[in-house]
Amino acid sequence: MIIIITPDEFKSVSEAAREDGRAPDEIRPLKIEAGILERADGSSYLELGGNKILVAVYGPREAQIKKLQRPDRAVIRCRYNMAPFSVEERKRPGPDRRSVEISKITAEALRPALILEKFPRSVIDVFIEVLEAEGGTRCAGITAASVALADAGMPMKDMVVACAAGKVNGKIVLDLSEEEDKRGEADMPVAILPRNKEITLLQSDGNLTQEEFEEALDLAIKGCLKINKVQKEALKRKYGE
Q1: Which of the residues 22, 40, 108, 166 could staple to 187 if both were Cys, CB 3.0 to 4.6 A apart?
Q2: Nearest to 116 by CA among 63, 40, 43, 55
């Protein structure tokens, strides 16, 4: 049997598919596991495409440093770290400006979901270790951290889930790979509380028109809702229905 594709049909197929074969609104293969570290209060492991991320949560526990204490609530601290072997060219060990920035925005993205008033003068530590990186690690880290916090038994209003959309070759696409991020014209990481779609993180790097911004935001939120189902499935496997 011979299948003939006309030039117009070939154009539509080539525009619909990306270099890795995904459709514009398709996320990379995703796997999430909850509670994999015995010595942490909560933990998770996430694979998204070539990303491999491990998260450990400790607390809530009394803040030993008095200047960190808040009399009315707990404080959440996040440490995002990329292992030296996580990227193709060996990364210098230790924090850099990018990891400090991502640590800060991760804490800010997670904070609205947590009922911190239940634990005054306490601290919650979230450690995000990127074992392998392949684009979109900040969104993957936020998503995994939310599962680890739930695994730790933290009272939460909702999960937090993150996903990015962006513009590649003039097209709005979901969940940019590392190569797409490097070559693309724009990248927009978004984190939400799925129940009411409240946005807890919105960043934009690159040039988007008003219409493209709205399209990318809508696509990122749809991606978040897809990922949230995998978060819930991971917790159900650990704790049952």
Answers
A1: 166
A2: 63
